[in-house]
Input
Amino acid sequence: MSGHSKWAQIKRQKGANDAKRGQMFTKLGREIMVAAREGGGDPESNFRLRLAVQKARDANMPLENIERAIKRATGSGESTALEEIAYEGYGPGGGAIMIEAMTDNRNRTVSEIRNAFTRGGGSLGEAGCVAWLFEPRGIITLDTSGQDPDELALTAIDAGAEDVKTEDTTVEVYTSQGDLEVVRDALTKRNIKVVSAESAMIPKSTLELDENEALRTLKLMDRLEELDDVQRVYTNVDFSEELLEKYAG
Output
């Protein structure tokens, strides 16, 4: 997704206040719980849990919160029944939107998501309506401060990256899902600052919209991500950096 780094930066900035940070910690905790429930509570032998814990640490989530989430999932604490569900739909102008949710109440979640789509000028679709437009990839974002972006890109490719995109202050590294951890570890060992590393759904091709429809799509994505049960939102709309800066402003 073009502009992924800038969009991620906008979300981090918006998550700086206490209310947003609390919601972010709740979502990170859910991700840890589901990973631990499915693969066990040991991050060393559970890659998905290891990735979720690292993501929580990157967000400065307290260690006790991380440990509590693992204990709840593995039977050492009060447990919550969570299930993962994907939702699909269309934004203003026809952009494809993929949503990853974790919920203990399907009816509540689908009602909130449908309402967000309606209010945002989009529509919730049937399962499979846009999933074919995306593919799972690993994304690693690197901080370029004090380093040559082109050199970082070459280093990432040497480490096993499939593709690299350079921005003014960041480098986006794309990997297969299976190589995400390997590439991240290789970059970390070379003292390269990793801003974030995550599994994501990347569009196989992108769609350009006029400015009004693109801004409305961004607002819809924000509205969806603000829902407690929504973990991540993806789109195939190509946002220019100028548009993202205008939206952030």
